[in-house]
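DATA SHEET
Item: assembly model
Revision: 1
Owner: S.N.
Input lines:
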Amino acid sequence: MKNMSKSGMPSGALVMLILRVLRSGPIHGYAIAQRIHALSTEVLQVEEGVLYPALQKMLLKGWVTAEWGISETNRKVRFYSITPAGVQQLDAEISDYDRVTEAIQAILRTA
Amino acid sequence: MGSLFRRLRYLLNRRRFDRELESDMEFHREMMAREGRRDFGNMLRLREQARDAWGWTWIERLGQDLRYALRMLMRSPGFTVTAVLVLAIGIGVNVTAFSLFNMIALKPLPVRDPGSLVLLQRRSPEIIQSEMPYPSVIFYRDHAKTLSAVMAVMGVPPMHLDGSAEPVRADFATGNYFSELGTRAALGRLFDPATESKPDAAPVAVLSYGAWQRRFGADPSLVGRTIRLDNKPATVIGILPSTFASLGGEIPDIWLPLAQQPYFIEGSKVLTDSSASSVRMWARLAPGVTAKMAEQELLMLTNELRRQHPKEIWDNEYIRSDPSGHLRVMTPEMYQVATMVAVLTLLILLVACANLGGLLLARGVTREHEMGIRMAIGASRKRIFRQLFTESLLLASLGAIAAVGFSYAVLRVTLVWLDAPQWLSPVPDWRVLIFLIGTALGAAIFFGLTPALQIARQRQRKPIARQVLVGAQVAASCILLIVAGLLVRAMHHTLYTSPGFGYEHVFSIDPQLGVHGYTPSSAQAYLTRMESRLRAAPGVTSVSLVKLPPMGHTVSRTDVEIAGRSVAIYPNWVEPGFFQTMNIPLLLGRTLLPGEKNAVVISESFARRQWPGQNPLGKQFDSKDAGSGPRDTVVGVAGDARLNALNDDDAVEEYWSAHVDDMPGMSMVVKMSGPTETFVPMAKGIAESLDPKIFPEIRPLKSLYHDTVSRVEQLAMVVSLIGLVAVLLAGVGIVGLVAYSVSQRTKEIAIRLALGAERAQVLAAVLRQFAWPMTIGLMAGVGVAAAASKVLRKVLFGVSNLDPASYAGAIAVLVGIVGVAAFLPARRALRLNLAKILHYE
């Protein structure tokens, strides 16, 4: 599982996915991992060993912020939310991603 | 920018951020546990990886390493104290030397805009002249557009103040001197550029703070009072502040306006005489002007001046500018000395570092166990190397702190001892601090890097690093000892060999007749009367005139090359009796006749070099001045007498008979027999009765000679001390290294002894590994010292820089100390308790 999450998830893609998930509203770290897992029809697994470094990096870049909230288990936990800079970054990454996948698919179709 | 700000905020609130991260991850775990998944990694490590994103991990590691290093150093206080002391000496000597250089050549003077101040001097390819005729100064001042201000200072022999016995040092300065430097009076006022530039203004004087305190008991009512200098009344208008910094480090007691010089020195015409080089010229570059531009403009002006006064300007004369906004205007020779000192002090640092490197290597062996454990639990070599190097950095920092304290103390004492101007402070400034940090870092790299690498690679038992360290220590201390030996020999040479002339019971009298406007004939009359009065005085055995008195203010020399060797010729103009008065033996021929022309007496070594193996009498040669006229004939050979070049082995002398034209510039030497205490008041009395406006400068040659010699003594003492410190450091270092390598081979030695080996053989086997490095180190040291000590020749007072005694002495001392240092610990190792060692393990 661990191997798959690492090989199957380029780190650039992880940031994009986290930002995308956060666009629907603030959620905590564990929920981010859950959401990605669920939305990917349980293909993509995000381990805490990659999730938290990625989140720290995004905090540093100013793409996300974190605030204290209360979890569904009634525990004090930090909720991450996307910032305007994060939204911009997400748009840029999605268009980049689209371009690259289209290019790859073009090759796959013709070659 | 935003991310940098967030990064800094993280650094400042690192604990809170870390707690938040921890809480996030804990929650993550809780939720995972709820779902029955148990994929627990090392929480601490995961957290560390996550924190890595902020890029501050190195600081945390550094903190860890430092804490650990501190614990390690505290656990072995003996080692730490030794290491810090060794470093404090090594770094401290360097910081002290640099601080002195900083004070002399780097620190800007506390005056207005020190960066634009320059000293302007006359130069030509043949002639060096630091003073200028005042009319030329005026010409440059009035025409140079690249200079925004021109100042001139004239030094004069000490003057007599209100009839007190102790003379005062006085300087004449242009009226703009203090206003240009931005100096404010401590009391009263200083020169006003407008008033004090007029020759007919009321005579005034400004006192230095020190003179005001010493001579007038800091009496504030002195301002406005009239004092008498050489019997000329002048009003004290102000007192300089104690922090006053004058140009070129001149510190007279009294400043007088240059425009009033003819009033104070009656009859003097130097201000209008365009042939008398009498003042130092300082200037301020105009804004945006470089020294080069100013030199170019001044060259044009010099050529213009040549058209006006063709006789007074030399061929190819130009004006040289030197930045002078610091204590001393540096000359190439001074830079040479500074380089030499820097090399010597760096050698000490080298010895200290090599020493400490050896200690660290030895410690590496005792820490093998610790390193083994750390490696076993997963520390990488890189991490161990970093840890060890952090320890070295910590040691270097502690050493640097101790060094600053050491250097501050030394500087304080030195400044007091040198009677340095008050604005010079021993407190290190930013230049010194940067130098300190650089030196400490360099030292840490030098002594810490190799041992750290070797230990991290578990190679500390290899002898090569140790051998290099021993070799370096031996070489460096060898150089230091040889230089110290040379200087000590030079000191003995000057102390115990005769300078070639008698200085006991001899006085020089300099009446400065020319400065007082005497003509050749009136000067001759004055001197003749003075001589006959002196001859008649009790105790006086001999009186003679000389143009350049021994150890006088003015020195003249010409450098020529004879048979491929540079020789400095010191010319002089004397009365025939001069040789007798100065006890200089006449070896061949005869002395000069009074007023004789085209006859010359040369010194013995001059004759030997010019005409080796021939009789010099009757030989002729062109002197510089007599290129076209009749040539000079050698009529006599006198003994070598380095009247004005005590410390120059290449000096030779040439004497001509003094002529009437020389009279205004002549001085007098007087030899006494018996007590000399009464001489100065007596000579003063005679001068007073001959011409009350002349106050000759009377100086005993004996004390001048001792002043010169004591400077060498001090230099030799300091260098010997440094050399001794170096050799002791090296000795201690070698004791440690040998002791350590013996302890490392204890078992081997024990087995050899148990099997019946001779003790001497075992000893040789142990010491053999040090034989080569010591030999190579010695040879390298001797080679470097021989090559580098050429620059020392000028201060060696006639001792060759290859003086075998100094070399042999240095080598003997070094071999002795190194031998004892190697032998003692080795011998102790042979008195082993064999059974106990062989039972061990």
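QC remark: Chain A touches chain B at residues 1-2, 28-30, 33, 47-49, 51-53, 55-57, 59-62, 66, 71, 73, 75-78 (CB under 8 Å).
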